[in-house]
Amino acid sequence: MRLRKFGTILFFLLPSAILLGALVIYPIVYTAIRSLFSAAGGEFVGWDNYVTMFTNDSTFTAIRNNIIWVVVAPITCTVLGLMFAVLLERITWSTAFKLIVFMPMAISMLAAGVIFRSMFDENPNIGVVNAAIVGVQNAFSADDAAYPGASPRQDAGLASEGGIISGEQATDAGSEQAVPLVGIRSDDLPADAVQAEAPAAPGADEITGTVWLDVVRGGGGVNGEIDESEVGLPGIRVDAVADDGSIAGSAETDGAGRYAIAGLSPGAYTVALPASNFDEGAQGVSWLSASLINVVVIMSYIWIWAGFAMVMIASGLSAMDRSLQEAARVDGATEWQVFTRITAPLLSPVLMVVFVTLIINVLKIFDLVYVIPPGASKPAANVIAVEMWTVSFGGGNDAGLGSALAILLLVLVLPTMIINARRFRKERER
């Protein structure tokens, strides 16, 4: 009888044991042995790969980033999932809300990485985040003209230094100073720019002139003179700078590029166009730079996995005994007290399962870290899984060091897996 029972158990467990040994145990054992050999595998090097691993700056960066991931991502996802799950019971359109929050789980990590890399691109014409930031900056900033790349026409009596374009010689009050510029792209011209025109005759206390783009499309024209189809540059500030460096007067060019600085005392002044006329204007944030890349990658992970936490916690919330909450409300407890002293403690087993699951997941994170950072920011966003792949297959061709990194990753993940398994066993025994 016992032999038959043992045979039945062996019959059902043997296929699973074979698969477990072939797919889990054998790779772990082989990787541990392989980590003790050289890159090509022909020479036994002992612990040299582990010494190399822990003396490599990129490994320390990867471990530091993994610690940041473990501290930030699981906690944030769990807290957001709890908030969303509780909110689902308060809103009438809970099904639509749940669909919106959970939808990113249906997107592959690779696709999510591409989405976030495009969203946070520094160019406002590509990245929607920087487009919004630039839009807000433009809405609340002064409506100044900006002509990036502008430079003075050669042999026009103008000089450029520190971004300031000015006349090489001082100009007397009652005179004119023409300012022909080049190097401005046509798409940087404002909509109100029209054909450049010569200025009005100056008064005794005025300096007048025209600031224009001294370029004829298709070629031709006379350098330093206003030709037909050459466009004036509106909105440019023009200063009259006295000998002591003070600004004696200022004016702004009109649609035809004309300006007139009035109220000047007799004397000579340097006509100058401040550098603020030629800056790039409102620009976005370098989200994908080395200093902010980890923030973007972790945000993409939270965007994906907050829906998973919400669904798990919502299922635990739906199975909760609501009589305890109602009794607390009858006794005069506020909603916050009900949540902190009744709901959250009763949900603690579910919250712990979600939290531990996310820890295991972030320790193995690879896709997002590999896809989102551009080349210059990849070292700053490095994690252990990416470092292992890079060393083994991404150009390093060092299977020994890669195996050592794989064992390090296993050692980091194993304690969390053991804690999770023990928790499942205790819940099963209840």
UniProtKB/TrEMBL annotation:
* Primary localization: membrane
The ABC transmembrane type-1 domain covers 63-420
The alphabetical list of record keywords is: Cell membrane, Membrane, Secreted, Signal, Transmembrane, Transmembrane helix, Transport
Q: Where in the cell is it found?
A: Cell membrane; Secreted
CDD domains of this UniProt entry? TM_PBP2 (cd06261)
Q: Which PROSITE patterns match?
A: ABC_TM1 (PS50928)
**Protein's UniProt name:** ABC transporter permease
Q: Which organism is it from?
A: Agromyces marinus
